[in-house]
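[Discussion] Sanity-checking designs against the backbone

I'm trying to build intuition for which residues belong where. Below is a structure token string of 460 positions. I'd appreciate it if someone posts a full sequence so I can compare it with mine line by line.
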């Protein structure tokens, strides 16, 4: 669709940027924080350890002052559950509360809107030892944690995200690290965990609307539109299969209160459907998000399954993420899109397409909570970092977002990944996303000085 004129970005659009607790904070065992699964898991050996990360825990004042200088209107960060409730539940750690209270105050000082993710991959280890998300008690623990957050920060924070990328955790559980010994849960166990997360999320959203009536809450999902590899009808069916199983099945539950019909039939057919207890359906029906938070990096192109083991292959550059499923879909190449040097598809037009599809499906405003390009940025001797590729990437995505707004998609804001360099889940500090360079290597912490990159001044 070509328009005579493009609509402007909305007046109070949240021009922001994002991080997550375990990838930026460090201080992994300080001030009463207990270990999370991230601290206890094994990671690919070349990933920098997370115990110091970007040392944001000690430098958040300096960092948030830089964010203000960059012109941020919003800062999306996550709270580490293990700082607030070191035993997962029970006694509240006041040092954890005061840390996030200070972070929020530092944002407010500069007129930056805090956008808080409650849970970004870092389940308390003590809960994991008791069965983690496979144990229904974790639902109560999460709702209790949510209550503590709303009591302490509900008055100061308007935008809340429940769970980051539940779909990644369920579909690609190895993506955030491997349990020691390397055994991942079965798919049946994973869909049971998924059901428990859905229940925790639904109860949390309901509680939020009671406790923080002026606020807005939503799930944060990694969404991506799928292209059929050809106009062959079987390719179209396969692309739809994977789009439903990867994306809509995870967003339908919070919005509509139940699983996508195709996904439900698929889970039953494969004997991986979760056990649903009496009352679960009512809980899921009883909660509504106010918006959808979307992490968008790339699209995928899909062909019909050949029905044999050759359907399954590791994602380029990433042995932890297997794509393709026998009898369901098969990943295919797309000659019309670009790729990062890590093999991630770069597709700004696909961003517009994904926004359109998400909005027409849910009719809820969309907040972009991640989008960005990972690259091995180079710190020059004079302290500059020339990341023109990042400027180009974001500029093109912003243009497509503006087209989507003109298409009628309601957008709340744009918080790309990342406000500052963070530990990549797979490539440590060899792969960076931030607008601000953090001077450290995988294992050599150097001085951890901050250096604004070219993209910082452009985004400003
Ligand atoms: C998102 C996650 O899926 O992708 C982030 O929410 C992550 O935590 C980001 O860092 C980029 O992935 P990676 O593996 O390049 O760090």
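Best answer:
Here's mine. Compare freely.
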């Amino acid at each position: 669709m070509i328009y005579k004129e493009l609509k402007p970005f909305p007046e109070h659009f949240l021009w922001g940027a994002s991080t997550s607790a375990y990838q930026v904070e460090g201080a992994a065992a300080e001030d009463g924080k207990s270990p999370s699964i991230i601290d206890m898991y094994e990671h690919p050996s070349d990933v920098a350890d997370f115990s110091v990360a970007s040392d944001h825990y000690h430098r958040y004042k300096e960092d948030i002052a830089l964010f203000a200088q960059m012109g941020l209107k919003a800062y999306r960060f996550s709270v580490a559950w293990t700082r607030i409730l070191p035993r997962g539940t029970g006694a509240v750690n006041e040092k954890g509360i005061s840390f996030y209270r200070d972070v929020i105050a530092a944002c407010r000082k500069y007129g930056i809107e805090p956008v808080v993710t409650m849970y970004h991959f870092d389940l308390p280890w003590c809960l994991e030892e008791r069965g983690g998300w496979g144990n229904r008690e974790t639902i109560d623990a999460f709702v209790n944690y949510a209550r503590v957050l709303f009591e302490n920060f509900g008055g100061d924070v308007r935008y809340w995200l429940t769970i980051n990328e539940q779909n990644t955790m369920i579909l690609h559980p190895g993506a955030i690290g491997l349990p020691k010994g390397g055994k991942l849960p079965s798919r049946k166990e994973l869909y049971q965990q998924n059901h428990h997360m859905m229940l925790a999320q639904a109860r949390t959203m309901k509680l939020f609307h009671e406790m923080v009536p002026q606020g807005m809450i939503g799930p944060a999902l990694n969404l991506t539109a799928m292209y059929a590899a050809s106009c062959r009808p079987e390719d179209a069916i396969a692309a739809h299969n994977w789009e439903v199983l990867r994306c809509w099945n995870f967003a339908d539950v919070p919005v509509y209160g139940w699983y996508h019909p195709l996904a439900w039939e698929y889970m039953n057919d494969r004997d991986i459907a979760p056990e649903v207890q009496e009352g679960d359906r009512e809980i899921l029906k009883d909660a509504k998000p106010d918006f959808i938070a979307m992490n968008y990096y790339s699209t995928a192109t899909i062909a019909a399954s050949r029905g044999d083991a050759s359907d399954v292959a590791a994602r380029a550059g990433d042995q932890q993420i297997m794509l393709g499923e026998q009898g369901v879909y098969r990943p295919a190449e797309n000659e019309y899109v670009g790729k990062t040097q890590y093999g991630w598809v770069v597709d700004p037009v696909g961003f517009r397409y994904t926004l359109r599809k998400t909005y027409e499906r849910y009719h809820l405003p969309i907040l972009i909570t991640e989008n960005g390009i990972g690259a091995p940025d180079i710190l020059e001797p004079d302290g500059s970092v020339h990341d023109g590729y990042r400027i180009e990437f974001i500029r093109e995505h912003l243009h497509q977002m503006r087209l989507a707004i003109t298409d009628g998609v309601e957008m709340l804001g744009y918080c790309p990944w990342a406000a500052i360099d963070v530990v990549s889940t797979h490539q440590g500090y060899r792969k960076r996303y931030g607008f601000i360079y953090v001077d450290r290597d995988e294992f050599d912490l150097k001085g951890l000085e901050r250096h604004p990159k070219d993209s910082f001044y452009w985004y400003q």
